[in-house]
Specification:
The complex is a heterodimer of chains A (93) and B (127).
Chain A lengths: L5 H25 L3 H26 L5 H24 L5
Helix pairs in contact in A: 1-2, 2-3
Chain B lengths: L5 H27 L8 H26 L5 H30 L14 H6 L6
Helix pairs in contact in B: 1-2, 2-3
Classes of the chains: A mainly alpha (93), B mainly alpha (127).
């Protein structure tokens, strides 16, 4: 594959996404309330999913789309279960 | 392998970098904005604008590379579009419930049965 700009753009984008994940991690560790931590974890899942998508483009392989989909799925399940726990004190009533 | 035309290269690079920049700005907002309720919206920006930018960049890239439209990518977009509002509503409800129980000044419940007093009287294993 011969790309001139994209060979520069994907590592830069990956660096930015990793930095975004680090900022979310700081919020998750610092977060004054429990819902702040859950929200930061959710944002971290989203950033990780975008990172996998950019990594797909970097490697030129479509094999990792399912990984991105799975990360999105697990992020949804985790955040919903945690929010339900914060609301009720238990996940399944 | 053929060379990607420059306009497509620039377009995909711009989309990917824009998406990553929006994700970075959203995470920065998550870190710097005051209060939980103002911090709700940067992750929504990541899930909509940043996600759509990077997904369309990847769509154009793999369409050019493989010669077939990678429609599986829109599965991710469809999934996110349906699940992110659910997560946001659940989290917002939990935060409102906990804020009412803690006695913070937030709008009262419309159904009226989760006031601060009742919430405090309700048995719950955690704060």
């Amino acid at each position: 594959m011969n790309t001139t700009l994209l060979a520069w753009a994907t590592p830069l984008a990956m660096g930015m996404l990793v930095l975004a994940m680090l900022l979310c991690l700081v919020r998750m560790l610092r977060g004054p309330t429990a819902q702040d931590r859950v929200l930061a974890l959710d944002a971290m899942y989203l950033n990780a999913m975008l990172l996998v998508l950019v990594l797909c483009m970097h490697w030129g392989s479509t094999d990792y789309f399912e990984v991105a989909l799975l990360i999105a799925l697990l992020g949804f399940l985790g955040s919903t279960a945690l929010a339900k726990f914060l609301l009720r004190g238990e996940v399944i009533e | 392998m053929s060379t990607m035309p420059l306009w497509l290269d620039a377009l995909i690079s711009a989309l990917v970098l824009l998406g990553a920049a929006i994700a970075l700005a959203g995470s920065m907002g998550l870190l710097t904005l005051p209060g939980f309720f103002t911090r709700m919206h940067p992750p929504a920006t990541i899930a909509t604008l940043a996600c759509w930018c990077i997904l369309h960049g990847a769509f154009a890239f793999f369409w050019w590379q493989d010669g077939a439209a990678p429609l599986r990518l829109y599965l991710i977009a469809l999934f996110l579009a349906t699940t992110v509002p659910i997560t946001s509503i659940f989290l917002m409800r939990a935060a409102l419930f906990r804020a009412r129980r803690a006695g913070t000044a937030v709008p009262t419940s419309l159904s009226g049965h989760t006031t601060a007093e009742e919430g405090a009287a309700m048995p719950s294993p955690h704060r």
